[in-house]
## 1
Amino acid sequence: MNVQTITDRVFEFIQNCRLNPDNWSFSSYPGGLETLYASCYSLMLYQYLGRLEELPAEEKRKWSDYVKSWQDPESGYFIGPELGADEVEIRKHSREHILQHLIVHVLPSLQLLGEKPRYPLKFAYRYLDLEYLSSWLNQRDWRDAWLEGNNLLFVGQLLLYLRDIEELASAQEALALFYKFLDTNVDPLTGLWGTNGYCSNANGLYGGYHQLLIYYYENHPIKHPERLVDVALSLQHDDGGFNPDGGGGACEDVDAIDILVNLYKRFDYRRPEIRLALRKALKQVLSMQMPDGGFVYRANKPFVHMGIRRTASMPNQSNLFPTWFRIHTLALTSEILTDDPISQWNWGFNRSCSMGWHENWDKAINPLSFSDRAEEWALASYQVIARRTSRLREKTRHYRHRIFG
């Protein structure tokens, strides 16, 4: 694997999605229609690939002007062309959810450019009201912890923005209530939310990844980290992805891998197993890169982002959303697998709390040693023997049943 080739191909794909050389507008895939999402994903990919720092100041200004031009001055929301009245098929995701999903990608994108929105985020001020926030938190439906994890990240990230950028002191008190609610409702058997009788471990993990970002960013104590690792490892399929049914998924894979990488750095627990899981996942993620340099969400499946028609792509057609998330996953993996070529690239994460944020550590003082690899080899050998023994036992049971009934 040549990491330079991987990144060069991704950059070429991004350029093929660019619509206008003058205003930094992009489509979600080559030949598609303009979306603000695509501009944000492209900008964050520039950061990962080390291309953003190469842009002249004038081009950065043009890019930020383009992004900021979509802000509604009354509410503070960013309403891209993909969110027009006839552009979204509302099913599971409400319009409010979609608007907030977009803005939590806009904010870190502008921050990478050294900019901030033109107007205050007035729509988010309601979360500063502790009575309103308490009511909102207690309305979360853990039967769909994946959806609620997104909602919780939106509110946590917005409160951080109101505290740090708009300098509203009341946001800190709201964040304290936010953490208290999450700490109280965590399932001690999994370290997740909703898994105590409301949803599956997989759904809980795909959701929990989101609010855990707020924990990492603020260094808030994580409850039951060992159980989180146990669940994440248990969800890995034989193909390397973290969809228990196989096939992985750009979201599913990063949700598990982000948890494993962050907890690997913070706790000495099942580290050899985490490394083996990351090596297996790395092959699966790289297999999702298409000939045009972009990545797909899942192989052989069509993709549409939250019912937004302009983001819809055909099976095995590259799309900027999974490309951004797949590259983020490679960057996360490179933090731990310092002996893999993927670690040779100086990946650039987002700088503010968001789905693309991660706190780097110094790989030079955290390299994998020969003893680390020896632990992996021993564990891998044991796993092979265990799988063969399990298959042999299953065959034996099958034959006994056929013979003796």
## 2
Amino acid sequence: MELPDEIRVLLKPSQLRRFSELTEPEQQQFLYEFSKQKVNPTTLLICTIFGVHYFYLKQIGRELLFLFTGGGSLIWWILDMINYRKKAEEYNQALIQKLL
């Protein structure tokens, strides 16, 4: 099965090797689950602007702490605005590891 380019660029060489070892139904299941659960960096940026990005990342406890501290007195919010792409990449890598 051919891996879409937008997913191929996210996979490390060891993950590509693991994907190729899966049977075709397992590959289809991986692609379906990953496409359904992955985090889009642009959507994460929009959620970060409004201060609800940890809900989007399924980190409910951290989001409540973020809200109760006013975004860590805005310092935490500023850092999250700068690092939103890194957060999306980390989430997607963790998801890939879980699904493979």
## 3
Amino acid sequence: MHTISHPPQALIRQRKHASSSGFTLIELMIAVAVLGLLTALALPAYQKQILKSHRTDAKTALLDLAAREERYRSTNQIYTNVGTALGYSSNFPISVPSSGNPTYTLSVNMVAGGGSFSATATPSGAQAGDGCGSYSITDTGVQSASQSNCW
């Protein structure tokens, strides 16, 4: 009679433990390298998109300012450069956003004694390094940018 010998239970446990011990150093280094590469590619695109969203916020605030000027003129027959008269909590210059870190500053220039105006959103803080410059609107609705390819 021939008997088949089975490996001892301790040897089986040792083999199972060795095959499921976790990541090797090479696997971990590859994962870190892939993560670093994805971060290097995605972070600049994300930051560029953040700057673009700040420009959109500034343009929206500037268009709102122009609408407030028109409402003011409809009852007073003149434009104003007093922010509180337009419903803002302070006078010009006004920060956009009004809380946190401002990225743009809104200002109003009166022309012809209040017969017309020009409002401008000027980058400030971290947004100043954006390179897209300022954005303006007049009482006639003419909009202009110092760098048209950005706005």
